[in-house]
# Entry
Amino acid sequence: MGRQIAFVSSEVHPYSKSGGLADVAGALPLALAKLGLQVHVFSPWYSSLKATPELIGTLDFEWLYQPLRIGKISSQGVDFIFLGMHAFDRANYYGYFDDVRRFSAFCRAFLPVLGFLELKPDVIHLNDWQTGLIAPLVTHSNIKAKLVYSIHNLAYQGRWNIPEVLAWSGLPPEVAGQEGLEYYGDASCAKAGLAFSSAITTVSPTYALEIQTPEYGEGLDGFLRSRSVKGILNGIDTEYWNPGTDQFLEHRYKTLEAKSAARAALCQELGLDASRPVLGMVTRLTDQKGLDLVLPALPEIVKDWNVVVLGSGEEHYQNAIKALKNQMPSQVAFSDKFDEPFAHRIYAGADAFLMPSRFEPCGLSQLISMRYGTIPIVRYTGGLIDTVPESRGYGFHDYQTGAMLEALTNARRAWKTEIWQGKARAGMNLNVSWDAAALEYQALYARLLVES
Ligand code: ADP
# Structure
């Protein structure tokens, strides 16, 4: 029988999603299952979940004032297990003052749920801070599983005061030392995951190096330098993200030439002047994603491009883009929703995709863009360095509006030329599937299990 893996993530596509973590948790387990591993994915049962799991049981805890609901959906060889409690019956997944408390409860419930399911995983694979407290909880239990902690974004850590985190999670005080979850006098759930796991990975080789420097290390660079961090480049679900079969597209295409119909449809839908190139962005509206570079430059950018932005997040960004859209409706389109179908239409219909990130652990949007023949224009940082060489896109180094505008000008000049088409085709032909990464994770699990 294949090794058993418990994969834990606070969001999982297609059931819940706010960003790339959901894409990873929805696709990597399927790729691992294809390699013969037995994978269970554990995630919160949000009231907004996009499917209704089968209720397979409830558990009572003295620390939770309602029964914990356990739900299950089996799909493509993987069991998705959902943990339901009132804390997850809210409009958004995160962004609440009590997030650390909510996810402490999730972590605390995880081990009893394993017991309920009579699972004894060989490896428990944790992802980002929401799952970090599981690492010390496992270490202080009689469970023998190996722990892997994957960093998807070190900027989010789940930081709170130590006494309350211990009380909420049921952890003993000895886990709170400097070698444990302590972080500048507080508790960091991310640090808990890092400190108590047997292996630390992150989602690209370049980000693995970057987070060991003060600039990107979020105060944990010293700690990370004392450990080994392995960068395994993310893939995407190439069946789901496939311009030839995409369920959300009216005009599907297999070649770069045929992409023009999807482009024309997008311009028509949005009332954009189709004689100009279309620059797309599908993004969380946060500082990380380079919005502070884009906004002041937008009046300049729209001289050359139609700009289509799909992004939810910080209100000041939403308001600023809305104002520009109202001034220039045939050059700027904007939606502040989280809108999966619209995202697909942008990836397919845009000529280029802008990703001027301040930092980028891996980035999936540029991989999706390339698969759709849409040329990424990126800031060279993190996973964007690893995935967008000059042969497939455009880029710039300095985090400055001028540098970004220069890259955009270079791209604009090449639009429709053979150079442009060569880059677009190189992107479409690239293998961006999970196959390679799944093999690397499998090898990592095997190594840990041999060492034990
Ligand atoms: P991050 O995880 O930092 O947000 P990634 O590039 O790794 O960035 O992944 C972003 C994922 O979220 C992609 O699948 C992208 O298409 C999707 N996404 C981001 N914002 C939206 C939105 N407003 N509507 C639909 N999909 C979105």
About this structure: The chain has a mean pLDDT of 97. DSSP finds 16 helices and 18 strands in the chain. The radius of gyration is 22 Å.
